[in-house]
Design goal:
about 300 residues, alpha/beta
């Protein structure tokens, strides 16, 4: 279990006089729910599959049931909840979240308030939440600007500048999964070429067991499998190079299951080194699969009004 302390709050919050914080990370493949104390230290967290093919309502219901169980197990009240969700979250729905049917119709903050009785609920994009965790607790505490790249079920990015995560005009900054790839114009989307789901599909086409992880494991040596993986990875590398040229980040942090592949990280590093005039440091998040969950807890903690 990850145990971290979230900095930057008042003495009243740090004194332990407050209730619990709840964090929920919704993903296309799995969901994570955590309960933390008033200082932001995780007391318990559990992860369950999303079962995306069964639709959004059942995923939300199971996550809220798990949240209620964890809160009840630790007693007390919940001061605030932080929710990390795919897509661009609006009060009346969610845009750009195609991996779970019906997700666009959910009202996450409203659902948490109604089911758990939590008045203060902060909701943000899952990669933005992960970037917030990296800013407060992880690899971007001493790096500016920063870029967080999520390689999980989908692919996306988050930009950090001067201690904040940039949302963009529509809240859609970093949605590079929609970047144009291939020819003829407009080709296809990057997420359809390189993402956990795309690599799972490629592995199935090539008869490789284990999905994206299995494909990466078997692509270390030259051959047809490595060539197929490189074709997809080069699409990601081109877009990542453009992101670096635009932002000039000091550090790039990779999060998500696909990012755990040493081969993929090495190949991306080689490609950035080859073409960028000023290559940023590229690192793997130390939070493994918990970056967005820790970001959700951070959202909750920073949503609690500071008391003097």
């Amino acid at each position: 279990m990850t145990s971290v302390r979230l900095p930057g709050r008042s003495a009243a919050v740090d004194s332990g006089e407050h209730g619990l914080l709840l964090g929920v990370d919704f993903g296309g493949t799995k969901m994570a729910v955590g309960v933390a104390d008033g200082q932001g230290r995780l007391l318990a967290h559990e992860r369950v599959p999303t079962h995306a093919e069964q639709g959004a309502p059942q995923a939300l219901e199971r996550a809220l049931t798990l949240a209620a169980k964890l809160v009840a197990a630790h007693g007390g009240t919940v001061d605030a909840a932080g929710i990390a969700s795919p897509g661009v979250v609006r009060p009346d729905g969610i845009d750009l979240a195609p991996n779970v049917p019906g997700w666009e119709r959910l009202r996450l903050a409203e659902a948490v308030r109604a089911r758990l009785g939590v008045a203060t609920v902060a909701v943000d994009n899952d990669l933005n939440a992960a970037a917030l965790a990296e800013l407060r607790l992880g690899a971007l505490r001493d790096a500016d600007p920063g870029l967080v790249v999520g390689l999980g079920t989908g692919v996306a990015a988050a930009v950090t500048v001067r201690g904040i995560v940039l949302a963009g005009h529509h809240g859609a900054a970093g949605e590079i999964g929609y970047a144009v790839s291939g020819t003829p114009w407009p080709g296809t989307m990057l997420e359809l070429e390189f993402s956990g789901r795309a690599l799972d599909g490629l592995a199935a086409e090539l008869g490789v067991a284990g999905g994206a992880a299995g494909l990466a494991d078997r692509s270390g040596a030259p051959g047809a499998l490595r060539a197929a993986l490189l074709t997809r990875l080069d699409e990601l590398a081109r877009h990542l190079v453009t992101c670096c040229l635009l932002l000039d980040p000091q550090r790039v942090v990779l999060v998500g299951g696909v990012a755990g592949s040493e081969l993929i990280r090495g190949l991306l590093t080689d490609r950035l080194t080859e073409v960028l005039p000023h290559r940023p440091e590229l690192v793997l998040s130390r939070f493994a699969d918990d970056a967005a969950l820790l970001g959700a807890v951070t959202l909750a903690r920073e949503a609690v009004p500071a008391q003097v």
